[in-house]
Design goal:
mainly alpha, about 70% helix
C-alpha cells in the first residue's frame, strides 16, 4: 500500500514536469531539423542530421545581437524603475502610520486587473502627443506601470513583518527615514526584491503586443521581432526560427534555473511575514 501511495505521488509530480519540459525539448529538436523534416509531420522524431548551422544563421541573419541589446536595455531599465518605485511605495504603505495606506494599496492592486490590450489606443495617443512614440521609452513606461502593482503587493507583504523596533533604534541613533530605508529596509528585503526582479524579467523579456504597436524603427526592435527575419513572401526557414526562439528563451531559462530559489524564498517570506 505504501508503494502504491508513493507511486501516485511520483506520478503527480511527473505530470507537470513532463508538460513543462517537453515543449522545451521539442523546440530544441525542432531547431535542429531541416524544413523537410519539420513539414513531414513527424513531431516526435529525432533529426536525421543535426542542423547546427541553423544557430549560426539565426545569430547572423536574424540580427540576434542587435535585438538582444535592445531587449537587455529595455528590460534592465524597467527592472530598476520597478524595484525603486515599488520599494518606496511598499515602504510608505507598510511602515508609515497613515489612514490612506490600505486605500493606496487597493489602488495599486486594482492595476493588476487592467488588461494590457485595453490600454493600447490611449497609450498610442498619449505617446504621440508626448513625442516618445517609436522610442524605447514608449515600452519602458507601460512596462513599469504594469509590473509595479504586483511588485508593491509582494514587497509590502514582506515589509509589514519587519519588526518596528529596528526602525525605532535607528531613529534614536539619529538616522533619517531615507537612511533607514536605504541601509536597513532594503538590505532586509533582498529575497522579495529578487523575486520582483525575476518575475519582471520573465514577464517583459518576450513581450510582443506593446513592442509591435509602439516600435516601428528596425534598430529599436526587441528580440521577438527577429523571428520575422526568416519569413519571406515565398518561403519560411522553420529551423532557423526554432534556433532563434531557443536563443531568445535561453536567458529566461538560465535566469530562472539559477535564481528559482529566490522566487520561493521571496514568496514564502512575504506570505509568512504578511
Amino acid at each position: 500500500m505504501q508503494k502504491v501511495k508513493k507511486g501516485i505521488v511520483y506520478l503527480l509530480f511527473a505530470i507537470p514536469v513532463v508538460t513543462q519540459l517537453y515543449p522545451l525539448l521539442w523546440l530544441f529538436l525542432y531547431s535542429l531539423k531541416t524544413n523537410e523534416e519539420i513539414l513531414d509531420g513527424s513531431f516526435f522524431s529525432l533529426p536525421k542530421v543535426f542542423q547546427w548551422h541553423n544557430y549560426k544563421e539565426a545569430y547572423e541573419a536574424g540580427n540576434y545581437l542587435k535585438y538582444l541589446t535592445n531587449s537587455v536595455f529595455v528590460t534592465g531599465v524597467t527592472m530598476v524603475c520597478v524595484i525603486v518605485l515599488a520599494a518606496m511605495v511598499a515602504y510608505a504603505i507598510s511602515r508609515f502610520q497613515w489612514k490612506y495606506g490600505n486605500a493606496v494599496l487597493t489602488v495599486f492592486l486594482m492595476g493588476m486587473m487592467i488588461p494590457m490590450q485595453a490600454t493600447l489606443l490611449p497609450l498610442m495617443i498619449i505617446f504621440k502627443h508626448a513625442h516618445i512614440l517609436n522610442t524605447h521609452w514608449s515600452l519602458i513606461l507601460p512596462y513599469v506601470a504594469f509590473q509595479t502593482p504586483i511588485a508593491v503587493f509582494i514587497l509590502s507583504g514582506f515589509m509589514k513583518g519587519i519588526p518596528h523596533e529596528i526602525e525605532e533604534s535607528a531613529f534614536i541613533d539619529g538616522a533619517t527615514v531615507y537612511r533607514i530605508f536605504r541601509s536597513i529596509i532594503l538590505p532586509i528585503s533582498v529575497p522579495p526584491v529578487m523575486t520582483v526582479c525575476i518575475l519582471t524579467f520573465i514577464n517583459i523579456w518576450n513581450e510582443y503586443i506593446l513592442a509591435a504597436t509602439f516600435i516601428s524603427t528596425e534598430k529599436l526592435k526587441t528580440l521577438p521581432f527577429g523571428v520575422y527575419t526568416f519569413v519571406s513572401q515565398y518561403s519560411v526557414n522553420y529551423g532557423d526560427i526554432g534556433a532563434f526562439l531557443v536563443m531568445g528563451a535561453l536567458p529566461v531559462i538560465l535566469m530562472y534555473f539559477f535564481l528559482s530559489n529566490q522566487i520561493t524564498k521571496g514568496m514564502v517570506a512575504g506570505a509568512v511575514k504578511g
